[in-house]
Q: What sequence folds into this?
């Protein structure tokens, strides 16, 4: 009898810990949504300025050897700004269109994040403007990161050869 009570207590404790982890994950997701709602308008403006800086300042600076290192680092920093903006947009779109469960699945089970789920949600709902906007943010993120890597590599290759 004593052993049966211990087993029941262990099972109850396991269930309580599991429920506690789920509640903690829900609070984490709700907090992320709340924070994204407040930061995304500011980050969108910063992302726009970063895009203009990349287009009109950093890419032309990447042409000339003495300024290539600066341009590469600037492009790399801009890629993180674009990525944060894309991630917050993906989180809000997934949460708005498909709800908390989809965000949970995107963050914790698939491990690929909420951006692909947001693209799927906007695609299935026929929301073309957010779909192409998010797709453009993903292209800007990886495009600037690849370009930064290329520019920095060219800068280092030229310095090693000299």
A:
């Amino acid at each position: 009898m004593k052993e049966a009570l211990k087993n029941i207590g262990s099972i109850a404790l396991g269930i309580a810990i599991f429920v506690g982890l789920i509640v903690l994950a829900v609070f984490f997701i709700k907090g992320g949504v709340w924070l994204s709602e407040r930061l995304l308008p500011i980050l969108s403006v910063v992302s726009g300025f970063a895009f203009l800086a990349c287009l009109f300042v950093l890419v032309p600076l990447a042409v000339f050897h003495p300024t290539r290192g600066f341009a590469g680092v600037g492009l790399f920093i801009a890629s993180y700004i674009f990525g944060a903006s894309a991630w917050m947009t993906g989180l809000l779109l997934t949460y708005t269109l498909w709800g908390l469960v989809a965000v949970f699945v995107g963050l914790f089970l698939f491990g690929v994040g909420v951006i692909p789920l947001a693209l799927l949600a906007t695609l299935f709902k026929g929301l073309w403007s957010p779909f192409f906007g998010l797709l453009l943010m993903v292209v800007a993120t990886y495009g600037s990161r690849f370009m930064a890597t290329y520019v920095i590599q060219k800068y280092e290759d030229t310095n090693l050869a000299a």
